[in-house]
Structures are given as C-alpha cells and as structure tokens.
Amino acid sequence: MFFPRILKQKVRSGDAPAGRTPRRAAVHLRSMPSWLAFSPWIVVAGSLLLALMVLLMDYRGGDKESAVATRIFLERGTSLIHAYEATLQAGMGFQWTDEELQALLDKIGTSPDIHYIAVTDEQGRVLAASDTRLVNSDLVGPEEMEELAPSRRARGHIVNLAGETPIFQVYQLLSVRQYEERLRRHGHMMMSRRMMHSSSGAARIPNQRLTIFVGYDMTPLLEAESADARRALIHWSVLAFIGAAGLLTLFLVKGYQRSRLLVQETSAFTFALLDTLPLGLVAVDQANRVTSINPEAERITGLKGGDVLGRDISEALPGLWTALNETGVMEEHGEERHVPREQEVRCVFGDGRRVPLALTATPVAVPSRNGRNSGYAFILRDLGEIRRLQAEIRRQDRLAALGHMAAGIAHEIRNPLSAIKGLARFFREISPEGGEEARVAGIMTQEVQRLDRVVGDLLELARPDKLNLTGISPALPLERAANLVRADMDKLGIRYTQEVPSPCPEVMLDADRMTQVLLNLFLNAIQAMPGGGTLTTRIRFQSRSGEEDAPGSGDILLLDIEDTGEGIPKDKIHQIFSPYYTTKARGTGLGLSLVQKIVEAHDGEIEVASTVGKGTRFTLHLPLPAAAREEHHDK
Predict the structure, then answer these.
(1) The overall pTM is greater than 0.90
(2) Domain boundary among 321, 356, 382
(3) Burial class (CB in 10 A: 0-12, 13-18, 19+), 28
(4) Handedness of CA 499, 504, 505, 509 (dihedral sign)
C-alpha cells in the first residue's frame, strides 16, 4: 500500500470531529522484538565476561597440562630407577661383566622417549650410560650438582640443550653399597675399570654417592603444547570474531533503535499534523478503497472513519465520487491519470447537506510493479464558512452604502421636516381648541416627530463608531437599562431576575452605548411578553475553547438577556439584524441593527437562540481584557 500506510489511523467510535478538538495521535508500528529492549551494553559485558572466561580456561588448562606432564615424567623416571636398582639387587649372585651391565642400561633405555640413562659420581661425571658417548663426560657441572642436591627421592627438571630439543631430567641417588662386598669378592668391576680404582690391584666400588639420571625427550610434550597453543589461537580468533560481530551487532542495534525512534517521532508528528490539519484529507489506494480519513474530513462529510475505511469510495462517499466524475478532477487516460488544479464543487453527503468544497486530487507517486501510481489523496477545503463570510461582507457593504445614502437623504429631509413641524404647530395654535383643525395639526406634529426619530436612527446607523471606552462593571449598564423599563415590566406583570457574580470583573465598555444596546433588547423582550412572563439577565465567563469557567477566569464575558415570550421562527432569525426588518406594527426595524453595530464596535458578537412559544435568548460575547482577568484572579 502507498501513502496510507504512513497516514492510516484508527477512528474510535464516539469521536466528535465537529468540535475540531485535536486528538492525540497513536502510532501503529510493529512492536519491537523483546531482545532489543535490553541495553546493548549487556552484549558488551557478556562479551568481556566470555573473553575473560576463555582466557582463564586456556591459562589454567595450560598450567594443568604442564603439571600433569611433569608428574608423568617424574613417575616414569622413578619407576625406571627403581627397576634398575631391583635388577642389580636380584643379580648380586651373578658375575656381571662390563658388557652385561652396559647391555642392562641399553635394554632399560630402549624406550623411544628416553634420551639417555646415565650414572654419575658426585662431581657429575658420567660413569655409565645407555649412550656410550656420554661416558667419562660431565653430564652436569660440580656447581650444578650441588644445586641439584640429589637424594633418595626422585626429582626432575627441564634441561635446555643448545640446538637440541629440551630434555626433562629425572635424577636420584643410586644405592650400591649393600652389594659392594659381594662384587669385590668376585673380582668383578661393577661398571668399568674407568669407574674403579684399587691400589692393591683388587676391584672395589668407590666409597662415594652415585647418582642416576634419566633424560626424557620432551618432543611429544612440546608438540602437545604447540597443539594447545594452536587451539588457544583458534579460540582467541573465534572470540575476536565473536567480539567484532558483537560490536557490529551493538552498532546495528543502536542504529536500528535510533531509526525506529525517528520513525515513531515522525509518525507521531504526522498523525498529530493530520489531526489538527484544517483541511479534509481522504486517501484511496489503487483499487479506490478508502485507506485514510482525518478528523476534518469526517466533519465535512458527516461520517466516521470506521464507516468508510476499507470500502470503495463510490459506496462510502458517493457524493464525493460523483463530484469527482462530474468535474473531471480525476480522469482516466489509458495508463495515465490527468490531475487538474483545485476545483470548486458541491457535494451532497448522506445527511442531505450540500457542502461547497474546493477539491484537489493528488496522485501519490509511489512506484509499483506495474509502473502505475499507488493511489490518490483528496484534499477537501470547506468553502461554507468562506461563502458565509463573503455574504456577510456583501451585506455589510450594502448596509454601508445604504447608510451613506440614508444619511444624505436624512439631511435633506430634516430641513423640510423642521418647516412642516413649525407649520403644524402654528396651525394648532391658531385653530380652535377641540376643533378638527387642532386635531389634524396634532397628528401632523406626532408623525413629524416619529419621522424625525427614524431619520435620527438612520444617521446613528451611518455614523462612524466612536466609543468612549472605560473600565466598568457590566452590571452597571444592566442596572441602568432595567431601571428605565421597570415601570413597563411592572405594568405588564413581568418578573425580572438578575444573575451577576460577585465580585464582577471590569470590562472596557462605552457605558452609554451599552445601556442603549440593553435597553433595545429589554424593550423587544417586554413587547414579546404582552401577557407577562420572566425576563432574566445573567453574566457568565467562558474560555476561548468554549468551556465555561469560574467568574473572571475565562477569556470572554457572556451577557444573556432571556425572555419567555413568543419566540422567533427559525427561518426568520437570520433576518432580524437587517435594517427595516420588523415584526411589530409600529417598529422601525433599526433597533437590532444598531444593537449589532454597537456590539461589533466593542469587538464582540451577538448570538440568538429562540424557540417559538418558549422564548428567546440574546447572548453578547464581549472579550475580557487580560489585565482585568489577572486583577480579578489576584483578588
């Protein structure tokens, strides 16, 4: 779907678009995956913890393997030394030759991982060895021999030979004293003549400590350590890759969250903008199904979004569809659609209202697979208020022209009226008292006076508004006007009630002109109740949003004049402020025109509500100055 995917909104039953109260936009986006709700720093902490664990495992694993290998070498060397001693002890009854002893060392040292077996004196010189090349050489130096301090308990250490593989050397003191005499009796030299020395020519074992050394080849251990190092390198490579992937994921998640937040803010702003847009907006897809409608369009069409969304526009809004087809706002031309500029149309909606609209059809240019536009957005501008204002302007222009003309005529009429009035008074004075001539002269005088009042009203209607504004309580002109007509109300049995808050804030008014306004309205109300009734006046306060507030806390002062008289027919209400329109036998039809003129001069408005047989209410809307509101609030 096109543009409506972004603009589509849910319309709740019970919304009142006519009030044009902006609704909070709800952003309808797919909920974020739950794993994205966690802080990305958890990923970083987890990666660091994993790296630390792997490092510790590799470190401890390497140390453990080295310790195990050392223990194995030491145990094997100890076992081999004990086997060698046991063999010598078991064969003490035999006559050992040099070759047999050498063969014994060679046989014991046949294991592939044994580098050599050697017997040394206290100075570290080799007396016998599995490798005959070592015989009579220094396996270890005297100083190193002292540091090793061999004992009957096997020990081990690593020996690094220049250019050769390191050797793990196990050493222990060799016990031969227990069978030394037996060897001397047989005249056999234990190891070799190079090992013995006799001043009498008799063979004997030297009276000194012998040490046996077993050297193990560490190549398998080094290969295992190399394999461990390679595994550790692989572990760290994998860990580095996981860390890099984690960081990349972190940046991607943060970017996704920022993008999603931006989309939410943009969508919320778009919905809020559509809700407060003073233009109606209706969107359709390629199949002409309604996909979006904003509150202003609901107000214009008189329909709720839930009644039209998803339906074909020709069924949901037949009046609009008919206007589109009749005016050619949207015409088909093969695969192209011609879109003219804004055109004025009159649409008939479901409740029978004929609404003048300025209609614009805008294609939504979202490419689709078939290359055509995805739909249309129709912009509706209500011209009803504009037409009403234009008619009001024309009426005001006619009234102004009429007023200027009437003023000119009034000036011309007043001069002969004065002469006629003087002649009528003269004829009345010279006519006999009670005669026909005196009666006719009296009638002429009365009619001339009435005509003079009409001329005065005409001049008042045409005269520019010059108000003497002062800060007064609106209750003051109310009291003055009520006192002027109190005798008439008492005569007709009309009950007068007044509802004025205390204290009442001051309003910038021309006291005399406002008294004139209220007097006209009071007289009209009294004349509408010839058989008695109730005349009620009240002062209220209202905010600009239309909500009634506490006294003095609103923006507008409302002054109601309400009667229980005959009422005004609904089809006549719009005419009552026109000059010379009256329903009274002796009325001039200029009273309410003057009332409206004076109220508008105070930057106010006048509102009429009437029901035939129940009465009429006139409401004056007068702006309340900010200073007056603040002063009243402080009180």
Answers:
(1) no
(2) 382
(3) exposed
(4) positive
